[in-house]
Amino acid sequence: MRFAHILSPWGAKPARVPREQLQSYRLTVFSASPRLDRLRQHLHAELSARDLRISQMRVASAASDDDTHWMSVTLHCAPHLRGALNSVALGLGRYPDVQRVHYEQLQ
Looking at residue 65, which CATH number applies to its domain? Predict the structure, then answer.
């Protein structure tokens, strides 16, 4: 019991950032493939692992298979996690089906 109490500061979750300090971003991924489900699952896992909170996710299919399909994620990011968001955005560009990745800060 005492031992667990001593180690608790190292196992504790990081303190929450006040809501007013969070910044909102929109990450949009454009793809030639109509099958975005694997990419959606990967993106959700990556963002969750980096403690980036998703507030909304939208997937849109184009009218025909020749058109571009896209997935948009709106998330809240603490200022110190901006580098993690950059890493996720850059990592998405390595997928063969991804044509373009765009993210912007929302106001």
Answer: 3.30.70.260
Q: Per-residue confidence of the chain (107 residues) as pLDDT tens digits?
A: 444 545 545 555 555 556 567 899 999 999 888 778 888 888 899 999 998 888 999 988 766 666 788 999 999 888 899 999 999 999 988 888 899 999 899 97
77 CB neighbour count, 10 Å cutoff: 22
The domain total for the chain is: 1
Say what the pTM is: 0.72
Alpha-carbon gap, residue 11 to 38, rounded angstroms: 32
Residue 5 covered by a domain: no
